[in-house]
Specification:
With 142 residues, this protein is of the alpha+beta class. The protein has helices at 2-26, 81-89, 129-140; strands at residues 36-38, 46-48, 52-56, 63-69, 93-94, 103-108, 111-118, 121-127. The longest helix is centred in the N-terminal third of the chain and has 25 residues, at 2-26. The chain starts with a helix and ends with a helix.
């Protein structure tokens, strides 16, 4: 009889632990938009602290980018206002005239950052300076 009571108690404890763990994991499906760190390729550009870097360009590339997994992010939805406010508070301004669908362009001084949103992840990219100078040179010849 004592053995059955202990077995039931152990079962209840196991069930409660599983329930608590499942509830805790489920709550992280949406980003909190409360704490931020600098992006791996542009330290002065904020990304949510809970974003996980999954890919980054290495070496000599035409495009410097970092991809971050961020569960709960939706391409079809606007970026949350708290995130846009943090980006602005870090000194970046949105260049709305250059926005293209789910890709946003931000500027800070001479620096340009593209933020592209997809379902479940975002990409922070920096256009190559040489390409920008070449385009400006071509435009001035017109």
């Amino acid at each position: 009889m004592l053995y059955n009571s202990r077995l039931r108690l152990a079962g209840i404890i196991c069930a409660c632990t599983i329930l608590i763990m499942g509830t805790g994991c489920g709550s992280s499906a949406q980003p909190s938009w409360e704490s931020f760190v600098g992006a791996a390729n542009v330290k002065s550009f904020p990304i949510p602290k809970e974003a996980n870097k999954t890919e980054q360009t290495k070496g000599n590339s035409d495009l410097d980018y970092v991809r971050y997994a961020l569960p709960g992010l939706k391409e079809s939805e606007d970026l949350p206002e708290p995130y846009l406010e943090v980006i602005e508070s870090w000194g970046w301004s949105e260049k709305k005239e250059e926005q293209d669908g789910s890709s946003l362009v931000f500027e800070k001084g001479e620096s340009i950052v593209n933020l592209t949103v997809y379902d479940g992840f975002l990409i922070i990219s920096v256009p190559a300076p040489l390409k920008k100078e070449a385009i400006q040179g071509l435009e001035s010849k017109k």
